Each structure stands twice: as C-alpha cells, then as structure tokens.
Amino acid sequence: MSATTYQTRFGSLSSYEKGSVQPIDDDVKHYAFSNCFEIANGAKPYEKVVFGQNQIYVLECLRAEGESPWYTCAHDEFALVMDGEVEVHLVQLDAKQTVKDVEKNGAVLVQGAPSGRKMGWMKLRRGHQGILPKNTAYQFRSARPGVVILQTCKGDLSIERWSDVCQSA
Fold first, then answer.
1. Which of 71, 87, 98, 146 could bond 135 through an S-S bridge, CB–CB 3.0 to 4.6 Å?
2. What is the tens place of the pLDDT at every residue in 103-131?
3. How far is CA 128 from the centre of its chain?
4. Residue 136 bridge partners (DSSP)
5. Residue 61 forms beta bridges with which residues?
6. First-to-last C-alpha distance (Å) of the chain
7. CA dist., res. 51 & res. 55, Å (int)
8. φ and ψ at 44, to 5 degrees?
C-alpha cells in the first residue's frame, strides 16, 4: 500500500487554474463545477454572480475593486474574502431606509446616502469572514482587485450565468 501525498494550492485572482470535476466511478454530467476566481476575473466590480445554490440560499461571487454601492438586506449575510484586502463599512440604518418587507430575500441598494449611526468598519483579508447584519448598510472598498464570496439568499441583484460559470460536461 502506498501513501498518497496531497498538496493544497490556494488560488487567487491573479493565479488560478480552471478546475474540473474528476469523476471516480460516476459521470461528470451529474455535477456542476464553478470557480470563484474565474468568475471574478470576468466580472464587473461588485456584480453579484451566483455560483452555488441550495433552494433560496446562494453563494455569490463579487469582484471587489474600488468602492461598491451601499447595500442593505432584510436578513443577515456573510462575506468571505478569498483574495485581496477588502474594507467593509457599516451604518445602522434609520428606519426610513431599512427593508420594509421582512421576507425580502437578497441585498438591495440603499437609496441615497445611508443615514444612521456609523458602526465602524472591518478590514478583511484572504480567509477572513464578516457578518453583514440585517438592515445595516454596507459598502465594500478595495484598492486592488480581490474576490469576495457572499452567503446570502437569491434576490433582485443576484445574477445567474450558469452556462458561463459552470463546467457541465
């Protein structure tokens, strides 16, 4: 019996390999595969491209570059930085700018400048995760291109490009 040596390689926006499904005793047609770095490489800054979905819950890939618009959401979201360094600025919104429909899924744009108490900001680097509390305005700022994954629910700003982002055969 021989021992197998594995080497973990972590990709980045500037250095990644297009991955693939490697079937062992199955058929690759039964799976979909996507690569967040490849998606971010071809995306506009802060497009919310869906690359994973489980019922209403989605993983969105964002190319972090410059300043994003201000977003808010009726539910908590989580941001995981996969590459680069991203600041997340937070404002506890006044009631007039919160999402009125508590069942609304996904992020929405804040209309105008966010009004409310500034909560501070987080500096997230590769592997760091931050919570984006419900009814809080958040803005991403990144001096250089980076990659952020959002764990959220599919909403009006979610973009689906399944045929462009997934290997299907």
1. 98
2. 999 999 999 999 999 999 999 999 999 99
3. 13
4. 92
5. 49, 149
6. 33
7. 13
8. -80, 155
